[in-house]
Specification:
Its main location: secreted. InterPro entries: C1q_dom, Collagen/C1q_domain, Tumour_necrosis_fac-like_dom. This protein has a single domain, classed as Sandwich (Jelly Rolls), CATH 2.60.120. 0% of the residues lie in helices and 58% in strands. It is built from no helices and 10 strands. The strands form 2 sheets. Strands 2-1-10-5-8 form a 5-stranded antiparallel β-sheet, with no helix packed on it. It has a 5-stranded antiparallel β-sheet with strand order 3-4-9-6-7, with no helix packed on it. Strand 6 and strand 7 form a beta hairpin. The mean pLDDT is 81.
């Protein structure tokens, strides 16, 4: 409630991951399309495109994590309407590794947010030009704060 005026708060929240699914990443700037939808209140997340479209204006929190296999390094970025907002690097020589990040953003209705590979995918040893992301360690979540 602001200045005595009640606000009808809509429940907007989503959480998705790759548990039970996988995606081959073989292009730069490739959107991660999370198919395992845990929650999608407000129907802002599209499991066919991997893009969250803001159902209403407000301040939102977003979290994303990237998990990779041995000998792979992967830099992913959180995008807002085609511009980089934050990034997360995962990589390890000897074991699986996870990188994550969280941001809070003021958004307008219709803004689009997604996670994609960075234009500079690199590795340490035997990069084949392809990375497979899978498991619940690769996730993307967001919710309306106010």
């Amino acid at each position: 409630m602001a200045l005595g005026v009640p606000r009808t708060a809509r429940k907007i929240a989503f959480s998705v991951d790759f548990n039970g699914f996988s995606q081959r990443l073989n292009n730069i700037n490739q959107i991660l399309v999370y198919k395992n939808v845990l929650i999608n209140h407000g129907s802002g997340y599209n499991a066919n495109t991997g893009i969250f479209t803001t159902p209403e204006a407000g301040t939102y929190a977003f979290f994303f994590s990237v998990q990779v296999q041995v000998n792979v390094r992967l830099l992913c970025v959180l995008m807002l309407n085609g511009k980089t907002v934050s990034e997360s690097l995962a990589g390890q020589i000897l074991d699986f590794n996870t990188g994550s990040n969280m941001v809070i953003l003021p958004l307008e209705k219709g803004d689009k947010v997604w996670v994609q590979t960075h234009s500079a995918i690199r590795d340490w040893t035997n990069w084949s030009g392809e990375v497979i992301v899978e498991y619940s360690g690769n996730s993307f979540s967001g919710f309306l704060i106010f």
